[in-house]
User: What shape does this take?
Amino acid sequence: MVPVHQLALKSLWNRRFTASLTLLSIALSVALLLGVERIRVESRNSFANTISGTDLIVGARSGSVQLLLYSVFRIGNATNNVSWQSYQELRKHLDVKWAVPIALGDSHRGFRVMGTTVDYFEHYRYARHKPLEFAAGKPFSELYEAVLGADVAEKLGYQTGSKIVIAHGAGEVSLFKHDNKPFTVTGILRKTGTPLDRTVHVSLRAIEAVHVDWQGGSKMPGLSISAQKAATMDLTPKSITAALFGLQSRVSTFRVQHYINNYPAEPLLAILPGVALQELWDMMGIAEKALLAVSVFVVLVGLIGMITVILTSLNERRREMAILRSVGARPMHILFLISGEAVMLILLGILIGIGLLYGFLFIAQPLIENRFGLFIGIDWPSLYELSLLGILLLVGTVVSIIPGLRAYQYSLADGMTIRI
Amino acid sequence: MSRVIEIKQLLFRWQCEAQPVLNIDSLVIEAGQRVFIKGPSGSGKSTLLSLLGGVLIPERGEINLLEQRINTLPAGKRDHFRANHIGFIFQMFNLIPYLSVLENVLLPLQFSPPRRARVLHSGTAEDEARRLLSHLDLHEEHVHQSVTALSVGQQQRVAAARALIGRPEIIIADEPTSSLDADRRNAFIELLIRECDTAGNTLLFVSHDSSLERFFDQRIDLREINRAVDNRTEAA
Assistant: This one.
């Protein structure tokens, strides 16, 4: 075969301005496709890594997704509680290594307040088994102390030492505030990209303390117990919302789960966070697919744009094709010349697109991690990404035949001279 | 002497038209001849050249080039035949604008291994291109220039060098001088004939301008041999 690719390259170089615009549109669409795919995969990972290192989440019997939503994502409310007594018995199970209770129900200016123990900061893991870190301060140790998630501190402008008042209920605007028992911020957590960032952490006893003069969800009229007095009372909770369990060995997970699910004293539910997260993600999978579909369409638009540009240029290039025919080119050469040009544009577009993506990642990676808590790894393209690009190249090559065929027809009709 | 071009009982018409465009009983051109074909527009000149180039095929009749019947060859073989044995020079805009002078001259060698082999037999392709260009009064300073920077006369000489490279047996020039002024026209024809004499190509020079006849050994008036023209004139 005659090396028409050199001709195609020189011809492209001759039209470098329009060609580079076409190239840019393809490169950008490729970068977008890969970028969306990266974000999709990484946000799925980050979602799946919202909680890690916890083997079981235990709550009152309801749906597994519901339990996951309120215990980990602070979305919705528990239908029922777990009694303190059951929790104490469960944590004594031989296979249980550690257990952290959580109590939800209060809020601070739209952010959920969670009662727990200091063990929470030690055992909670996110992403790839990353432990929680303090950006400032330390865990709470006194009764009326709180640890803030990164977003809470940033949005509301709190620092360690700030005083906050928590409110009853989870709404943005609360009618009932526990304003006689203010808390001092002792620590602020580093950003995690998980719902932790939007949580105010206090001790389980503190939750109990702010509710000593409450009963059944409302304040008891005429009864007001001061902060100091409450501190002297017995603040052992009667119930908790849920609990996180770490086990001695993963092998025993299903045994313990079975034991909890069939706990005779109380209807309880134990879930494996990974499984429930997957279930939840599958429910949201539509959005993920829509995102990918949009970027696929952007790539298609890029391809169509390129074909349009080449098709419109063909008429001006009929003379060029006629000259080539007169020096011995076959119509097939003309087809390869024009289609080859399109394939070259796509190939170059893909390479530049990859370059753009990595360039962008190098610059934006720390920003994205800081701002959104989403860590996007700068790795080699995954097999899936490569196959996406492979499909793109294949589709592009097939589409490139369109202007090639058109040029073929022109050159058959025109021969060596153009009758215009 | 061998017959380089031999046409017998040729009839050609465009599919959509009832009237034939070409109807030639016989046309014979022998090797090494310098032939002037006089053909004003409408005489079927372009069609004849396309038939000789193998881009079109006749409805009936024979076209033999170098004693090979080309009109029965498949399209691909006809393209090969053209690449290997014919050099064309057209009226104007003969050159690929994005290639340099040298690249334009070397272009046919990409499509014709025999012509490439012939050139490489006596040196490098570039040397041969430079030699032809200098014979046609285009010197070193032009070789790497963009063809768009050349004058029309220079462009036509580059086209001549391109037709001549690799010594194809037949050179067909279709009104190559119509965009040149009289002095340059004569100079161009003299250069072209001199080169064909040296290389031994058969030259077919097609023009409407009978003042150029004097440069050639053999003169053919297309209107006289093409009976289709008479028919049309009578019909009109």
Q: What stands out?
A: The beta strands of chain B are 3-12, 22-30, 34-38, 60-65, 68-69, 86-89, 170-174, 202-207, 218-221. Chain B has a mean pLDDT of 86.
